[in-house]
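Q: Start with the shorter request: fold the first protein.
A: Done. Sequence, then structure:
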Amino acid sequence: IIMAMWGILMTSLICTRQTDLKSLIAYSSISHMGLVVAATLIQTPWSLTGAVMLMISHGMVSSALFCLANTNYERTHSRTMLLTRGLQTTIPLMATWWLLLNLSNMALPPTPNFWGELMIMTALFNWSPWTIIITGLGTILTAAYTLHMFLMTQQGHLPKHLKCISPTFTREHCLLMMHLLPMIFIMMKPEL
């Protein structure tokens, strides 16, 4: 359990240093799965319920973030976050998707990620109160690298080499909506 929690911190620290967008999303998934591993090893009803909820919701969020990273790549031909800044000014609806999914990745209420992480952290705290330090640091680091990812891709001045960017397509919005709808259903009826 301690190794899984140590993995949360290490992969979160790796995420804070990433410049590649897809690598950051991938390491973020590994960090979240550290919580799932720790919860599975505890074997309490709360931890197992939280683990299942976090796996399902993070599967939706992570997949949608990879879709967004691909839409950025199709327009900028780069995965480096420094070269893809300022996209909010050219494709503002995608910035909305980025914001919604990054907030969900940070486990803000009322997203299923929040409820899953809360249940896992409560079970870990009941197992050992010292785990709150590691999970708290992991939560802070998750917020830091997720906000960094959003700010690096959406805010700032558009680089000179990106003056002609194609608009978003309906298929991209439909694909992202297919990720968001199950999460909304889980928010409305978590017992599903």
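Q: Next, the second protein, separately.
A: Sequence, then structure:
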Amino acid sequence: PGYGDSTVAEFAFGLLLDVTRKISRSYRAVQEAHVDTDHYLGFDLRGRTIGIVGTGAIGRYAARIAKGFQMNVLAYDPYPNEAFAREIGFEYVTLDEMFEQADIFSLHCPLTKENYHLFDEDAFAKMKKGVVIVNTARGELIDTEALFKAISAGKVWGAGLDVLENEGALLHDDLALHSMREQSSDSLLRSWINLRMLQLKNVVMTPHVAFNSIDAVHRILKTANENIEAYLQGNPRNSVMK
């Protein structure tokens, strides 16, 4: 059972608002007592087109939030939920159509062999200039090098990333040296690019915490307790062994 559908979707929009309204940047400017409002010019979500990649429970909740902001919603999923699309009023499109039309992309799909580096150099090339990328799903869905190049070229206006390729090396000092010894040259390159992106003013990074709310943790514990009780009573629930 799901425990963080709304939790992760809300966090994705927190990242989106931070990027589009430059909230963290302006907060740091206040801390430094060096404020120039011209540096924090953002844009509204209302009327913008968001492309939601993956319409499982989290993606569907993200679509509902987007509708609350009066955004136009496009979605891509290999297994479209047409009933839900009709319910809240959005359209399923191909990935290429989404790349061409969306102003904002929010990723909410699992990582599979088929969608590894779903957002690669070719994908970014098809997008409008000035898009925003939000990823609270899995870091490997995005080609790190391609994203960095797209940001540097201005194709991507900003990014909100709760997940990264090789994120362990960036988030934990005690793992960094060990992981660098074990990494291939490609992995080392991605780790280096992560560090470079961390320094960019139009990138907001968080340490894989989109799931982490009091409410979600309570749901996890409640489900675990119920599973244990059901098992002890001889009636196991939520079993992954069929």
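Q: Describe the second briefly.
A: The first strand starts at residue 49 and ends at 53. The mean pLDDT is 91.
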